[in-house]
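INFO worker-7 received task bundle
INFO bundle size: 2
INFO processing item 0
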Amino acid sequence: MRYPNAAKGIKKIYLAEILGILALVLAIVMAIMVAGSHVDTSISGEEAAQALQAANVGTPFVILGVAMMLLMLVSYFMNLSGIVNASKDDEGFKRALWALLASIAFGVVAAILENSNAKVASWLKVPSTLFELVVTIYVLEGIGNLARNLGKNDIADLSKQCRTWMMCALVLSAAAEVFVAVQAAESTLKTTSGIAASLLGIVAYVVYLWVLNKARLMQ
């Protein structure tokens, strides 16, 4: 490939997205576990831990939660490293880098406030999701630019199409996040909306992964 930095970066982004999808799957399993045990999702902290233990799902929930967090952390840092590498070869990836840093910032603050102020944390997840949309759009833009320069017009066209699909899917996911924040007091609606948002995210990232897989094989 004429763009060695981008080639290395895209491979890292591809692996990061696989790890991100695995983390989302674990999040869905955890949400289903909570819903199936009839634990009130409006509670948090020690009260929530006691409720999960009483429902006999406390230990598996903690194990899945730790695994999900580890996958998310590795995914974030690998994605960041990949975009930094690729940004040396295309401006689209540079814009994606700034958007990713903003997404991480909102996500970290939301995680910190999750126990002390769940309402604010729910609202902070909305811009985090929207910045994720911006990251993927710019990464797809960068892939499209590189593909055209390499004469891979089929990949460039696919990247353009997927930008549209990604925008639709992740806007719906962000809307679901807003619904979760607004309906925080309604435990059943909150759980259902959270599962729907995660499912929409998986669909969007599977499409994104398809493009990344093709892009990492470009020569």
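INFO item 0 finished
INFO processing item 1
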Amino acid sequence: MNALEGRWRASIRDLQEKEAYLDQQACALSADYAGLADIDVTLELINTRLTIAIRLIELIASTRDPETVGEMSELARRAAIAGAQLLEELGNANVSLDQKELILEAEGYAEARELFKQLLLQGGGAFFDAAVEDARAASLVAETITASIQKFLRPDDTYAPVVHTERLPPILRAIMKTLFPVLGAENQSEPPYGIEEGAQEIYSAETIKMPLSQAIYYYENELLPDLDADLQASPGDAFLQREIDRIESIVREYKQLRFVPRSTPVIMTPNFYTESISQFTSDGELLVPVELPVVFGSGTNLERLQEQVEADVTRRLAGKGVSEELDEQYRYLKSLASGRRGSSRLPSYKLDIPAGFGALKRKFPLMRHLESKSDFKRLVALVAQGKRKEALKLLSQPPLASDASPMELP
């Protein structure tokens, strides 16, 4: 190692050590608590990666050795992409509306915005230019998208009630209401049940369901410390004492629970049917109710169709050699090393869809057509009319920047 190489490596060593520590923290939390993410740790990791990229860009400007410049550029590119990817995943996280506000209002998020802007102003935008070198792979991706849209074209909100309980004799009605209170509810509305664009609704609930490990973590690390602090500020408060005893009793009960996850996942739409019917996550962890108020949106038919197609395309392309990052995740989930998080028989149904879709999107910009509502509606209309060639032609064009810009932050 020459003196020049030693100096630039030493200048980012502390940042790289910090990145490794934060990454280890984030991965350990996710592995131990069913994908749980600490917003502060995640934002600090994002900012550290973006800072590394900016620092390297500054060092490149004063370096003349081509070999050193090439090595520094590659490290900067990896740090920039990893930081931007994590920032995008955090912004697209499947959380309630009130939780999204917490993310956007976090101090680290404002810093991430500024660092990202600084990265772009210093020429870091070139790191995100995805030049598609494999035309055959891009063609396969486009064909897969049209096939997936065709698969989900038929509306799935037009099913009729299985049984009209109100029309049954009194004794059968009583049995249905007892054994099947949801399936056999009386006077169910007729289809269609979906929500069109512009008719979205906002709902709230006093409780949510969490994986067992996350519920215990929330009670022990969030709720109980807050209650203890309130009790110290108001000693002898009987209500607080009873509430602390109640929560501690719940934690003891949850810690005693033992369950055996399914060896094969329930193949249903993730985070909807799987959890509501089986009461387990797709990874096989028990779901339990937690008294935590949340606010969430109803979503629309178009958004649901977008999610279905994005997930289906990601699964279809896993292991096909179009994205090494996606294939690596697929191979790991198929191996015994993945434990209960993987599946040797159905690894594609265990994929981290947001991460897999992100990997495809970074390599194939045409994937952003699936995020653009205007482009996606055009694709759906073309496929529905049997105009497959026109749909493929649309996919070969850049997506509309107005609602699918890779450089736009909230």
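INFO item 1 finished
INFO post-check item 1: The chain has 15 helices and four strands.
INFO post-check item 1: The beta strands are 202-205, 208-211, 287-290, 294-297.
INFO worker-7 idle
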